[in-house]
Each structure stands twice: as structure tokens, then as C-alpha cells.
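Friendly challenge for the regulars: who can give me the C-alpha cells for this chain first? No prize, just bragging rights.
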Amino acid sequence: MMSILFLLAAVGCSQQSSDGVLTLEIATADFKVDIPAVGELEASNSTTVSVPSGLRGPQSLAWIMDNFSNVKAGDVVATMDSTRESYRLDMEKLDFDRLGLDRQIQTQRDKTIDKTLTTDTKLTGQELELADRFFSEDERVYTKIDIIDQMRNQDYLEAKMLFYDWGIGQHGSQAQAEQELIKLKQKGHQAKMTRYSNNLKQMQIIAPHDGVFVAMPGWSGVPPVVGDMMWSGMTIGTLPDTSKMQAKLYVLESEALGLAIGKPVTLYLDAYPDMPIEGTVSQLDALSKAKEKDSPVNYFEMSVSINKTLVEVMQPGRQVNANVHALDLKNVITVPNQALFQKSGEYWVYLKTSAGFIKRQVQPGNRSLNRTVITEGLTQGDIIALTTPPKRNRV
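First reply, four minutes later:
Bragging rights claimed.
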């Protein structure tokens, strides 16, 4: 709850008057409102430690450095499980090599077919040449049947030559197409091999410089653990600059009245409750939100700049309690909220007079959960009703 301290100079106590109306005598007093907040320390400046941007596909986290561990530049802070990528790479290499063997076999088969077609073409050409050389239409030498057979043989050999010429051309195109198909398949496997090889080279996350490794909670609110799925560019932690610290605080939505940038803050480390730390609200969310998933309670998140960083005790992640000094007014008149009434933009209290209670218009100022500052309409020593007086007591 909001802590409200009233240092009263001369406040009259509420009392039951003879007419049965509970009243309060007005007196000036100091009006101070402190808003409680909780949170933790964090560095003002940090270097993000992320999964390498070149890593493709989801990867399983195999190991991660303990939270708040000291690291040196080049140290490994997390490692991905390379088992799956290694297996995929081996399978792609196997398929690539198998296609290489298929290509060699196809090349030898093409050479054999090409040689066969070339030889048959040559032999057929020789047969055609002999047929042409010894062909004769002299009926004194050959009968008509022989002459017809010779002519048919020539036609057959010419057709055979045309077939072999067509077969050589067709086989050449087909052989080239088959070789190109094998090359295309190999390119696909080669691209995957390159991808898996590059992934295997980026399985380790390296610290870019010296510092303290602070694991970054994910959407579930817990830091990464072994077995979590990691994606390219995902942040797993930070390397904070501990020479300049700030606090990340949360304030309940119902208690945030008066919260604003520039308000002074006093913080207390849980580990050092007797050591106050001074700071100022430097950033404040415009909208409240839940800290935990499915929680109905909303908080305003804010950042507090710390005036002086004590490196030896102020470490990232240390829990803090704080009071945001929302109001600190001296010698002002305040009234309990239940004694202040309003309608259509007008505010009033019921002032006690010798004739009874009268309706006195007032001008309200700053307000807390249970009291309101009155800037006009009341003076010290006035007596007001804490509740609505009965009609018989009003003038």
C-alpha cells in the first residue's frame, strides 16, 4: 500500500460532537507520499550476447554458462547441440557421393552406347558402299529377283544409316540431359552441405569482451536452460558494464498516483537493508502490464538512475526495495478523502459553524489514496464534518 507520512504541526483529533457528527479540526501539516516499488539492479549499458545471426534453423541448447559468471573476451558462454547438424551433413555427403558414382556409371554407359552406335554406323556405311559398288542392273548377270533384292538391301542400309545418325544425335542430347539432372541434384545437396557446415561452425556463442555474464529471461520469465530451442539472433544474456548501474522497478497500478519522471527515489538492497541509495526516475512506461503471464495484477515498469554506483556491492540482478518520493509538501492543509465531496466539477466540504454545518466550496490540489490537499477554501482552525451531516444539522 502507499505509505503516507503526515508530520502534523497542530492537528485536532477527530471527535464525536454533541450533535452526533464526526468532525475534524483543520491544521497545517507536512504532506509526504512515498510509493513503494520492488525490482532489481541492472547495468545502464550492456552488450547483448545472442545466438549467431548466421545460424539457420532451430537449435537445441546443449550448455550455458552459470549466471553471473566472470568471462573473458573469446570465452564460450553457450554451446548448441551439434548432433543433428552432424548427422544431416553426413547424410547429405552420402547422397552427394552416391550421385557422383551415378554420374560416373552414366558416363561409362553413355560412352559404351556412343561407341556402339558409332561402330554400327561405320559398318553399315561400309556395307552400303559395297552394295553401291557391286550393284548392277544388267539382266545378263543378275536375274530380276537378284536386282530387286540388291535394291531393297540398299534402301535398307540407307534407312539404317539414317536411324544410326538419328540415334547418335538423340543419345547425345539425352546423355547431356541426364548428366545435367545429376549435376542439379548434386547442387541441391551441396547447398545443404554448405548450410550444415556453416551451422556447425557457429554452434558456440562467444563473449565479445570481458565482463559478467547475465542470462536473459525469455517470454516465460526464466533464463535459458539446457534443451531450450534457440533461433538465429535470439538474446541469451548480456555483458553489463557494472561501472554504471541503474534499477528496474515495478509499482502496482493501484499505487502509482503521483508517479512521474524526475521523482527522487531511495533504494535499499535486500542484501544491505541499512544502506540507502539515492536515485531519480529516468524512464516510466506509459501503460501498466502484468509481470507474469496470465496474472491479473498490473504494474508500471520504470528505470531509476542511481546517483553513485558502488561496484563492490551493486551487482546485476540484486533485488531491491524502493520508495519513490512522489510528494513532499510543507505546511499545507489536507482533508481525508471521505470528507471531500464533488459533483459536476465542484468540490466542497461541510464546515461547522455556530448555526450548524454549511456547504463550503474548496479547491483541491494533490491527492493521495486517503487524503487531499486543499489549496483554497479552508484555514487552520476550521472544523469540518468527516461524513455528510444529517439535514437537521445543516444550514
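The first strand starts at residue 3 and ends at 8. The chain has two helices and 24 strands. Your move, everyone else.
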